[in-house]
Design brief:
The protein is mainly α and about 700 residues long. The protein is built from 22 helices and 12 strands. The chain starts with a helix and ends with a helix.
Length: about 700
């Protein structure tokens, strides 16, 4: 230890026996690491660790540091964990009161090591000796290395550490640099990373999104019944299996089991056919497979072969089942005719499929709830409740601030089902999303690995499950939140739920907190969203066509008349095709095809519908004397005049609004002592409303 290091150690403002965690609540029975601990600071079981963080991320290693750097690191840890420490305040350092997270501090100390290594190469004894150019050279070297590696320069946290050394210098035993190398300049500006409100996270491509979400829902809604039933059966067999049974009692059990025709022999499929699962059969007989005193089906002795023959005779008679269950859900398979989605659920198959089911639940929940990865992973068993007549996830009561109110996050029923299934699979005492197989680390699985594993699993076995192939495009937990936020803005109503009854997921998702940045459009979805909206518009046009064909009144006004003329032309043309034998009678598909070819222009609205043709906007009042923006096509909705436009028509659904408006205006018009200019304005509005209503009354 140098003289400066010995002097620094004796002058530290923090005591060796001080706990490092003073500004947040400890977990029950926990003891915080002390300032005097110089090798390892372990915060597992001390402060709450998010479920998506590994235990190693909650440990800070100080091993290998020089004594001076070790002391500096512990001082920084103390300040970052306790920004309002009395010793810090006494030296005129006033910081925000929120403590830093363990993994944040851990990362910053790695950067401190990197800085110290650079200083050693330059012969600098301590950071107090560094000048502004030394820090700038350090960042320049990092920028050069990032450029060579083809990476973005992400040195903002390094700048935070450097500025902390300067800002905390009066509370550090060895002091710190005397100036901020970049006074008044943000860290993003320093590394030439301009500030932006744009969320850089990309949306998942539609080619991946739809097959992935549908596959996850198929696992939850269809395959889960078989998986959970097989798991329950497997667990029961293991719990009731006996040891030290003996061969004689075992053979009696076998003969009694075979005497019951309802019992079926479990088989497993192989590349060349199928074979009897002898170990599972042993369990079904109530015998532990590890019982060395009752090896019923040994090939090496004659009695064992005789017992095998009894079982093989039952198989020849057709008494078989696929693993643990007699029947599995059937699907339309891509490798042949309709059949079970899985050949046989047993042993290793269950290990794989319950992992896939857990992953499906995780993907579905994070995709359709817009919750963050850390929020989904923190969901507790039994936290799905009813909140204002809708399903919701009740927030975890944080130990950091027990006075915070319990919050609720609205979800849809399918997400509630996914969370419930995940809770049944979870081996953790509290967490809904955790490990599902014995021997795995408690509560730990990698979120990204879960997504990638599920995609690989679906693609590997889609020939038997009937699921569509999922393109292996990038899909991260954060991208699900971005994609769903974007969809809730761009999808009309609940079109996201096509083929999946997800109860207006878009509308419900808007009740949850998000940002406009997340809802920004994504180029990869532009055409898909445009096509979806166009298809929905055509579906509504078909509804009007069918209603008109039944003789119902579909609307009032010149636009409605033009639409009826188009419908009549379609019917006449389809009748002509039928009369010549080109189509069959009663086949509406021909009429719908003709209707689509007409490209009848219609825009649906709350007050009226607009039938303006973009290529021939004759009679469009909204365009008269208007300054049309460059490149704009279509009507100017804010200048719509339903009472005077030849492209407008109203339907029965619109009439209630118009009549309510007429009553409201009439009531206002009769107000005593109303100013003349106000009365004139009301009269003009009334005339417009009455023109619309007269079109209805005169129809």
């Amino acid at each position: 230890m140098t003289q400066q290091e010995r002097l620094s150690a004796s002058l530290s403002v923090f005591r060796d026996d001080e706990p490092l965690i003073q500004s947040q609540a400890l977990m029950p029975g926990a003891v915080s690491p002390r300032f005097g601990d110089t090798v390892l600071l372990d915060f597992n079981g001390v402060v709450e660790r998010p479920a998506n963080r590994y235990p190693t991320e909650w440990r800070i290693s100080l091993d290998g540091m020089s004594p001076g750097l070790n002391l500096l690191a512990r001082e920084l840890v103390m300040i970052w964990f306790n920004p309002r420490h009395e010793a810090v305040l006494a030296r005129g350092i006033h910081l925000e009161p929120t403590p830093r997270a363990v993994n944040t501090v851990r990362g910053r100390l790695d950067m401190l090591r990197s800085l110290a290594k650079f200083g050693t190469e330059r012969g600098l004894d301590g950071f107090a000796e560094w000048c502004d150019d030394d820090f700038k050279d350090y960042l320049a070297r990092r920028a050069d290395k990032a450029k060579k590696d083809g990476r973005k320069n992400g040195s903002t946290e390094h700048i935070t550490v450097i500025r902390s050394l300067h800002r905390f210098r009066d509370a550090l035993a060895a002091g710190g640099p005397g100036s901020d190398p970049w006074p008044g300049v943000s860290a993003r500006t320093v590394i030439d990373l301009p500030p932006t409100d744009e969320v850089k996270t990309a949306a998942i491509s539609p080619d991946t999104w739809f097959p992935l979400i549908r596959a996850a829902w198929t696992y939850i809604d269809t395959f889960s019944t078989d998986i959970l039933s097989a798991l329950a059966r497997w667990q029961h067999l293991q719990d009731t299996a006996r040891s030290r049974v003996g061969v004689e009692r075992g053979e009696l059990a076998l003969r009694a089991w075979l005497a019951d025709p309802s019992n079926k022999v479990p088989i497993r499929f192989t590349p060349t056919g199928h074979e009897i699962n002898w170990s599972l059969l042993t369990l079904m007989l109530g015998i532990n497979t590890s019982d060395r005193y009752c090896q019923l089906f040994k090939l090496k002795d004659r009695p064992g072969r005789a017992r095998r023959q009894l079982v093989e005779d039952a198989v020849a008679a057709g008494r078989t089942q696929s693993g643990l269950l007699t029947e599995l859900v059937e699907v339309d398979r891509t490798d042949g005719p309709r059949g079970p989605w899985h050949p046989a659920l047993q042993g290793r198959d269950l290990w794989l499929e319950r992992t896939a089911l857990r992953n499906a639940c995780f993907i579905f929940t994070i995709a359709l709830s817009m919750m963050r990865d850390s929020e989904v992973r923190a969901i507790l068993k039994g936290s799905v409740v009813e909140y204002y007549s809708s399903p919701a996830v009740k927030s975890t009561k944080r130990k950091l601030d027990p006075d915070l109110p319990t919050l609720h996050w609205w979800i849809i029923n399918p997400v509630a089902k996914a969370i419930d299934i995940a809770s049944q699979l979870s081996l953790h005492n509290e967490l809904a999303f955790a490990s599902v197989n014995d021997g795995e680390a408690d509560a730990i699985f990698e979120s990204q690995t879960a997504i990638d594993s599920f995609i690989t699993h679906v693609n590997r076995f889609r020939h038997r499950t009937g699921l569509a192939e999922i393109p292996a495009n990038k899909a991260t937990p954060h991208m699900f939140r971005k994609t769903m936020a974007m969809l809730t803005r761009d999808y009309p109503g609940s079109e996201i739920a096509v083929g999946m009854q997800l109860q207006h997921v878009a509308t419900r998702a808007l009740a949850n907190r998000t940002t406009q940045g997340y809802m920004a459009q994504d180029p990869s979805w532009a055409k898909h969203l445009k096509d979806a909206i166009a298809e929905r518009k055509f579906e509504r046009l078909k509804e009007l066509y069918l209603a008109d064909s039944r003789g119902e009144n579909v609307g009032y006004g010149p636009g409605a008349d033009r639409m009826r003329e188009t419908f009549q032309a379609v019917r006449e043309k389809s009748e002509e095709l039928r009369s010549t034998g080109q189509t069959q009678r009663g086949d509406n598909r021909v009429e719908f095809d003709l209707l689509r070819r007409t490209k009848f222009s219609i825009r649906f609205g709350k007050l009226n519908h607009c039938t303006m043709d973009d290529d021939n906007p004759v009679g469009a009042k909204c365009l008269e004397d208007a300054v049309v923006p460059a490149g704009h096509r279509g009507p100017l909705h804010d200048r719509c005049r339903p009472s005077r436009c030849s492209n407008s028509f109203v339907t029965i659904e619109h009439l209630a609004i118009w009549r309510a408006e007429h009553q409201s205006l009439t009531r206002l018009r009769s107000t005593p002592k109303i100013p003349p200019n106000r009365k004139a304005s009301l009269d003009e509005q009334l005339r417009d409303v009455e023109i619309v209503l007269k079109k209805v009354d005169g129809a």
